[in-house]
Amino acid sequence: MAFNFDTPTNRLDTDSLRWDTFDHQKVLPLWVADMDFQSPPCVIEALTKRVQDGVYGYTHAPLELNRLIAKYLLEHYHWQIDPDWIVILPSVVSGLYTAVQQLTQQDEKVLLPNPIYHHFKLACTSANRQFEQMQLQLENERWVLPNDSLANLVTHKTKLALLCNPQNPGSTVFTELELRAFGDFCIEHDLWICSDEIHAGLVLDEYKSHIPIASLSKEISLRTVTLMSFNKTFNFPGTGLAWAVAENPKLRTAMQFSLNETIAPPSLFAYTASLATLKDGEPWRQELIQYLRVNRDLIKNTIADIDKLSIGKMEASYLAWIDCSHLNYQNPHQLLLEAGLATSPGSQFGLANFIRLNFGTQRARLNQALEIIRKTCY
Ligand SMILES: Cc1ncc(COP(=O)(O)O)c(C=O)c1O
């Protein structure tokens, strides 16, 4: 391997959200979703050079950024877009909040999956919008949308459906068939779609690839805002840059709401990091995927040996969604925390009997975590 993911990185005294929340002498913190790896060398070099310039004035997006993103989407996902369909954002989360606020009126409703990354619900509550939850079901070890019963959730007030693909938590990489069914459902009920695809670069399943829902047809594309970023895959969420793709000019205008006003533009370092990734990040990403696959298998094998825990397929990303119902313990997150492992509580995403374990870390640390799980959950 050209890149070494086993080298421990120091995150103490770096104001790391994940490492500073608990006493690191007592608790191994594998919760919030960033990785313990350094970003790719091409990113570090580009940022170092930019820092050494010493002048950090107001900076516009690099002129080639949209063109390179469009090229990337074509090469990686066979998705042909016009660079002008892209709206650059500081983060995917700000895009989620803007989409909910701008694509629905005060008395209109939103559909969202459950369990789900907590900002989906927060985006609705902060905009004072009601939402209905599409309860994901475990089928053949994959968390999938209940396509047959979705229509029951729709009223004439429903205007927007949120999708998370790959799904967090649960890590489903939705298939073309599943996405087409969802797209058809949204067409039938005349719903806008906002698809959060931030985990697209982290598909671990050897037989799956990421399919942007908007790439399936012009009809779907014209009703979809796709949110993407390199923050997760290349591990620089602290610099923060994302983008929305919207073919429909009305949706594009909606996503520009308040940009550069109450929503600040990305920092110049975010432009630098994203551009370096677009140009030279791919070899690192390929090796990251190999490394994460081994971590995934370690977790799968460990959980298979513990009767009281279970887990579905881990098709993407570095977030293991572990079912602890059979532990018969009301708060499995607290149980593990007391044993020295911080996970994310399932209640944060909508299912209290689960925990989410971040395995974007050095293997030695993951083994430590799995040992704690073994001892605590047998
Ligand atoms: C589905 C999903 N969307 C968005 C984010 C956060 O994105 P950003 O840091 O660009 O706001 C996360 C982070 O875990 C996520 O899992």
Folded structure, characterized:
By secondary structure, the protein is α/β, with parallel strands linked by helices. The chain folds into two domains: 121 residues, Aspartate Aminotransferase, domain 1, CATH 3.90.1150; 216 residues, Type I PLP-dependent aspartate aminotransferase-like (Major domain) (Aspartate Aminotransferase, domain 2, 3-Layer(aba) Sandwich), CATH 3.40.640.10. Helices cover 35% and strands 16% of the residues. The protein has twelve helices and 15 strands. A seven-stranded mixed β-sheet has the order 2-10-9-8-7-3-4, sandwiched between helices. Strands 11-12-15-14 form a four-stranded antiparallel β-sheet, with helices on one face. Helix 2 packs antiparallel against helix 9. It is globular and about 55 Å long. The relative contact order is 0.17. The chain binds pyridoxal-5'-phosphate (PLP). Pyridoxal-5'-phosphate binds next to helix 4.
Q: What ligand molecules are bound, each kind once?
A: pyridoxal-5'-phosphate
CATH architecture of the largest domain: 3-Layer(aba) Sandwich
Low-pLDDT ranges: none
Q: Care to count the β-strands?
A: 15
Mean pLDDT: 97
How much of the polypeptide forms β-strand, as a percent range?
15-25%
CATH topology of the largest domain, what is it called? Aspartate Aminotransferase, domain 2
Identify the quaternary structure here: single chain
Structural class: alpha/beta
H/I helix tally:
12
Radius of gyration: 20 Å
Q: What would you give as the CATH superfamily of the largest domain?
A: Type I PLP-dependent aspartate aminotransferase-like (Major domain)
Count of spatially separate domains: 2
Report the order of strands and helices.
Answer: HEHHEHEHEEEEHEHEEHHHEEHEEEH
Shape: globular
